[in-house]
Amino acid sequence: MKEMSKEISSKSNHHIKLAKSLLNRKSREKEQLFVVEGVRLVEEAIMAEIKIRFALYSDKLAASQRGQQLLKTFDQKGVDVFWVEEKLFRELSDTENPQGIFAVGEFMQRDLSCLILKENSMLLLIDGVQDPGNLGTMIRTACAAGAAGVLLTKGTVDLFNPKVIRASMGTIFQIPVISTESNERFLSYFQKNKIQVLVADAKGEKLYYQTETQGPVVWVLGNEANGPRDFFLDHADEIVRIPLLGKAESLNVAVAAGILLFDHMRRRQEKPILVN
Amino acid sequence: MKEMSKEISSKSNHHIKLAKSLLNRKSREKEQLFVVEGVRLVEEAIMAEIKIRFALYSDKLAASQRGQQLLKTFDQKGVDVFWVEEKLFRELSDTENPQGIFAVGEFMQRDLSCLILKENSMLLLIDGVQDPGNLGTMIRTACAAGAAGVLLTKGTVDLFNPKVIRASMGTIFQIPVISTESNERFLSYFQKNKIQVLVADAKGEKLYYQTETQGPVVWVLGNEANGPRDFFLDHADEIVRIPLLGKAESLNVAVAAGILLFDHMRRRQEKPILVN
User: pLDDT tens digits for A152-180?
Assistant: First the structure.
């Protein structure tokens, strides 16, 4: 049933309450909904055909041409849109300078069957990363490196955390990110598809640029403080490290992912493999 | 003059007021002082011989063995240390889970004369990066790659921002970071020392791993949204780009720095140059 009024001025309105609750992981998982905030990210979500349940906006959005365009798009797509007072909007927002747009989308239901593998595909498996900024940046990096997908183990920060979405710059809508499978299911997928498992670890003997791979690979990176867990170390085809020259004890995990994926891409491009 | 009492319980105490004011860039620059928060970072600062003016601590620090050790170190070094109530400490803190230690240090006075250049040295020049997490991560990355130093142009986020120090994981104390020079002074230093200027830009024609360099180099990375400014583009020996394969429009600037510096390190190691 469509709402008669398209204005919301009360905190107790159920759309407001729902949107607010979705800042919390448990509520997101219960509702299978998440929030996207900001003009550009909402545009990306629409382009990626994310199903948008409803949107909330304030005068700030309506004041810009791009915002007006977005409202028109919602209208064309039949998305319920509600106007919210600026002050109330600010209370909902997860950002310091809200742009006045908040869309509630349905979880993307992605599993391993979404992956399209080629002879030279790369995957990134993220095992237990805790910082949402790091996870979002890793997804952005994997997308830029042309990875076929990103796999998240249980115990990794929630994909639908607003900070992850923001740091990903919307790339979570552009590359398959799979967070619903068990480690065992990931492993049997790798085995079935002859995907080599390359685990990055400070204790690795080989240097990352000395791996010799053929066919698809998955790069495994672990938690910021503890690295990857035993499960993937035990099942690695190679355990490799990034040599550190200076006094720094470690690298940021997203920077490490960038070094590994882009070096792999470089080597694949220097020795191109023809694919159909 | 040493304080008679070593306990502070009032917000109006001048040490508290000073420490609090140092969360602000202008005050830091006026006083030439900055704050370091957290056990590990303070330990790093002490090891790096940063001059510590005074320290504030709460019961939380005193409760841990490592904290007790830190207090002993302060005592040995004759640093004034003040106990602060937990609640007051939390108000001062820039972090969500304060560890109960807050040291006020004097600015490191570093200029180009601090750099020690060798035949295969790398420098990182950061031109206008705005996010403190990005700047800190870039310094950490440069340190791990064995760079000889990091240069910051005017208009880059303040080196002594607490979030920069935290993201750097203390590496700002381990690698020379120079933020007091003009672009012209940087450039004349490069010219005098035959340092090749390699600028990363999305519009670069050459790929980053195809540069052919001999001798020391400086990698220039620019602002998150706008890239490097014309000054360095105009004076570049090479303008290079990182090829992006996926739909992502760009990389995080700290990830880009990691890819560039580590690839350079790799090539230097594959073709080693003997240095004295």
Answer: 999 999 999 999 999 999 999 999 999 98
- B70 sits in which H/E element: helix B65-77
Both tokens assigned to B274: 């003997």
Under 8 Å between Cβ of B9 and B85? yes
CATH number, domain with residue B64: 3.30.1330.30
**Stretch 214-233 of chain B: residues touching chain A, C-beta under 8 Å:** none
B87, B138: one domain: no
DSSP A65: H
| Cα Rg of chain B, angstroms | 21
Q: Does B107 reach chain A within 8 Å, measured CB to CB?
A: no
Model ipTM value: 0.91
Nearest Cα of chain A lies from the Cα of B6 at a distance, in angstroms, of 35
CA–chain centroid gap for B252, Å, is 17
Q: Are B78 and B65 in contact (CB under 8 A)?
A: no
- Residues B227, B175 share a domain: yes
Residue A81 shares a structural domain with residue A155: no
- Residue in B245, B264, B271, B275 to test binding to A, most A beta-carbons within 10 Å: B245
Does the CA dihedral A221-A222-A224-A226 come out positive or negative?
negative
**Residues of B with CB below 8 A from A268's CB?**
none
Q: Is B2's Cβ below 8 Å from some Cβ in A?
A: no
List the end-to-end C-alpha distance of chain B, in Å, as a whole number: 48
Q: Rounded to an integer, what distance in angstroms lies between the CA atom of residue B171 and that of residue B150?
A: 11
Residue B80, strand partner residues: B54
Tens of pLDDT, residue by residue over B77-119, are 999 999 999 888 988 887 888 899 999 999 998 899 999 999 9
Within an 8 Å CB–CB cutoff, is residue A255 touching chain B? yes
